[in-house]
Amino acid sequence: MWNRADLKKKGQQAFNKNYWKCVLVALILALVSGGGGFSGSSSASPSAFVGSENDDSTSVTVEETSLEDGITVHIDNDIEEIEEDINEDIAEDINIDSDAFAGISKNVMALVAGIAFILVFLVIFAIALVLDAFIFNPLELGCDRFFYKNLDEPAEVSEIAYGFDHGYKNVVRTMFARDIYTLLWSLLLIIPGIVKAYEYRMIPYILAENPDMDKDEVFARSKEMMNGQKWNTFVLDLSFIGWNILSLLTIGMLGIFYVGPYKRATRAALYDTLRGDMADVTDVIEEAADVIVSGDYDEQ
């Protein structure tokens, strides 16, 4: 059973013996894992009605005068007043139409802007997805391989290209599946997404040693290695919180030159420990199976 102090000591020692290369690779890893108007008018024509009153838009004065040859009806239409009323009606209609057009224009512009935003977001998301799948994930694998190899002897920066030279298609497919599965679990609830992220923690390291391993087998092995270890790994990550705060206080400089490489080296040490534990269990099981098959065991 591992403990945090031993892992962090092992990671720190590996980091210190190859300092500048570890800083560079950790920085690369942080970058790839840390994308026409119209107007309407209405017109009204004056009307005269004999012996009656018109509506509000016209003013009609009826005067009855008795003459010798009969009754003559005179209708006096105030032309100027009628013209003013008509002009007011036209202006009012124009204002109403202009307001309606302005409202429609704003809605159309908002709709167009919303569609444009969605299209731009989808394009950016698609580009980020492609870059992540075909470039960033293989780089992540290579960086993790560097820190794992650096535990035993100073590793070379060229290790970060390992994912491009070995089993590239399988690496892309498996790492992309990891990202999609984590995303889908996170959409359900935050906690399941976090749990799955820890369950898949060892996938890059497993692929770094076995780039052609079948995807399902890689997932199964990572799950087996992290079985019963997720909480302890979470606490291990939390133990760096003090260093993270100091990194923020130094505007990230401490993170670049110390905290980042230190954490990555410790994670590699965790993989190395879990890998050794699983190998020991496998050896014990195989030895027990051989004994049972051969019958070469003492009777109890």
Question: Key features?
Answer:
300 residues, mainly alpha, two-stranded antiparallel sheet, 71% helix, elongated
Concise summary:
The protein is mainly alpha-helical and 300 residues long. The protein contains 11 helices and 2 strands. It has a domain of 205 residues.
Structure description:
- With 300 residues, the chain is mainly alpha-helical.
- It has helices at 4-16, 19-33, 79-149, 162-165, 168-188, 190-199, 203-209, 215-226, 230-238, 241-249, 253-294; strands spanning 60-67, 70-77.
- It has a domain at 4-33 and 112-286.
- The radius of gyration is 40 Å and the shape is elongated.
Shape summary: elongated
Biggest sheet: strand arrangement? 1-2
Count helical runs.
Answer: 11
Class based on secondary structure composition and strand pairing: mainly alpha
Mean pLDDT: 81
Strand content: 5-15%
The quaternary state of the protein chains shown equals single chain
Helix content: over 70%
Encode the helix/strand succession as letters: HHEEHHHHHHHHH
Radius of gyration: 40 Å
Cα(first) to Cα(last) distance is 30 Å
Uncertain spans: 35-75
**What composes the largest sheet?**
2 strands, antiparallel
How many E-type strands?
2
